[in-house]
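User: Structure please.
Assistant: Input sequence and predicted structure:
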Amino acid sequence: MLSREEKKRQTRKSLMDAALGLVGNGDNFSSISLREVAKNAGVVPTSFYRHFTDMEELGLNVVDDLGMLLRKLMRNTRQSGGYAESLTRSSIEVYTDFVCQHRNYFYFMCQCRTGGTLALRSAIRNEFKYFANELASDIRALPVMTEIDSQDLDMVSQLLVEFVFESTIDLLDLVDTSPTYQKEFIEQMVKKLRLIWLGAGKWRS
């Protein structure tokens, strides 16, 4: 039998999953009502307010949950060791698998990065900063980065994070068009990121 706290967590997750499911089916998050979310989660609208004050707060929780989960996953991958090229490939493979398994999260992120409320856009920008800061910390010791100063390393990390995210919409839209698309996407991303690494190794302010 579930405890009261476990039931609360379960209902909270059901509400978030319901909102993400609507986004994944083509709805725009900004136009989804909390009544639709409650209905799809199988709860009454008043239950929604026990977990979130409004749809914006639900969206902020989605951003937080995805950010923490993905940052932990990617950091564990990077800290497994290796050179820039091997880390690039393993990171892209892990990221690509994660995106394909959690598509609705990324449809939501792509929508809200440009079309969400100011609070949602700010939260997503902050997640990008967290990703970039952790990436900079992890790649600082790589041979290709030893001659680059901290400010430029931060810039390179921001560029890498933003580039990968901007490419995510292609993966979401095209992964089902061909059984080989995911593999082709990974190969293209590795090549493109190698170019960024090569440029970073030569860059001096």
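The longest helix spans residues 150-174.
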